[in-house]
DNA sequence: GCGACAG
DNA sequence: ATCTTGTCGC
């Protein structure tokens, strides 16, 4: 992860680390759920990571941490984690407690090489993670009913790589996939447990706000 | 070659 | 991601 300069290099790391992803439940009782997100400053020169830890299931903010580092990798579809993870890793030590679960702003297994941001972060931190993306990256799916809570499998090459979930009545759905140490049904349950009246989980909403405010 | 393409 | 006010719909 340190000093990754080229896409070819990043791809090698993905091919190697993808085998470390655990797709079954390996979590303890979830008391703290975290949301992580990245914001940019100084015309993208600086990456600002924000981590928001909420109590579960109350969803109240209990701790937050941020970190700013120079942006060292461009945005290349399929390699988002190499752009965002360095800042997230820098912010983590600023936390006093360790979250039991992390909801990431991006895909998990719903990735060309089954190693999206959520998988990458989960493996590096060895903490259960879920990928919660606001738009589709790969995969196809049937139409989703308009009621909050309905979902359909996200398929790629006859393989279920995640689900497309209606997080709120009649709004654009979100894309949920396994990150690390959790299975898909459990991931759906926790994402639902982090939703209130908005399209995005509270964890991500807090992280978004912290990462994009000065 | 042409379009698609997490944030 | 980010630039940005009001506005249409439930």
Q: What do you see in this structure?
A:
It is found in: Cytoplasm. Its EC number is 3.1.21.7. Pfam families: Endonuclease_5. InterPro entries: Endonuclease-V (IPR007581). GO terms for molecular function: deoxyribonuclease V activity; magnesium ion binding; RNA endonuclease activity producing 5'-phosphomonoesters, hydrolytic mechanism; single-stranded RNA binding. By secondary structure, the chain is an alpha+beta fold. It has a single domain (7-22, 33-212), classed as 2-Layer Sandwich (archaeoglobus fulgidus dsm 4304 fold), CATH 3.30.2170. It has five helices and eight strands; from the N terminus they run αβββαβαββββαα. An eight-stranded mixed β-sheet has the order 3-2-1-4-5-8-7-6, sandwiched between helices. Helix 2 (80-91) packs parallel to helix 3. The radius of gyration is 16 Å and the shape is globular. The two termini are 27 Å apart. The model has no long low-confidence stretch (mean pLDDT 97). It binds two DNA strands through residues 37-40, 44, 75-78, 80-81, 83-84, 105-107, 110-111, 116-117, 131, 133-138, 169-170, 175, 212.
